[in-house]
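job 3f2a | input accepted
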Amino acid sequence: MYRFLLTPRWWGINLFVVLAIPFCVFMGTWQLGRFEDRVQSHEQAEKAPDPSTRAAKPLDELLPVDKVTSGRPAVATGTYADQFLVPGRELDDRQGFYVLSLLRTDSGKALPVVRGWLPGSASDTRVPVAPEGEVTVTGDLQASENTNSDGVNVRGGLPEGQIGMISAATLVNLVPYDVYDAWVTLPEAEAGSTGGAMKPVPAAAPQGSGLDLKAFQNLGYTGEWFVFAGFVLFMWFRLVRREAEAARDIALGIVPEEPATEETATSSAPKTSETSEDPSSPDYDVASTPVR
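job 3f2a | predicted structure (292 res):
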């Protein structure tokens, strides 16, 4: 009854099922592993001490920024140069913008420093000027932002002097000097009238270290892949059962009647008077033909 499984058509179906199910299981397991990694990194981040409480170190000793050095206090010395505003940033459930100044260090490279946050529009609010002369700043180290960072504006079209993303890739096209692939945020407002009105921007946790939306997306994808594997197996059993039932009906002679063809319909049609009166017809009865 199941010899149909050896036909070329069913060879193709069986091959698809044999390849699809392990692939779905593999992808589901991989997504589950990604979710478990995020959970583990989140637990480690909660158990680890607050990075901002550790001793400050020179900037170059903490680069490149990773999950360990993110949030660590970094020390850099230099003079402030260009300044930019970063609109569309929220703090304490209020909309505002960051004040970003570039600190030119002795190495010639510039370190982006978020000096603080101000409420309102970046185009209408008066911004405190940066301190003059050589300064030493100590700020919480942060990795360059990307398109997945919170508050980033990737649409463009911002006025001159404003940027939508704090990253070296963005700033290097706006200034004639190199920029560090990192930035710092000052934990306290600058002393004096130059920055006293600004609020400090707290350091953000490194990406991938918490149970964010992406972590639960990985968990959802895990379920989808396993459901798809079960669906493929279910459809294969259903096709096999239907084919087996059809083969059994043929073996028992239970075959649905075929619709009448044009030839059978013509042969079963009643004879007309024209046919009966045709002398050439084999059914013509000479004795019963009246004499005219």
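job 3f2a | The longest helix spans residues 8-47.
job 3f2a | closed
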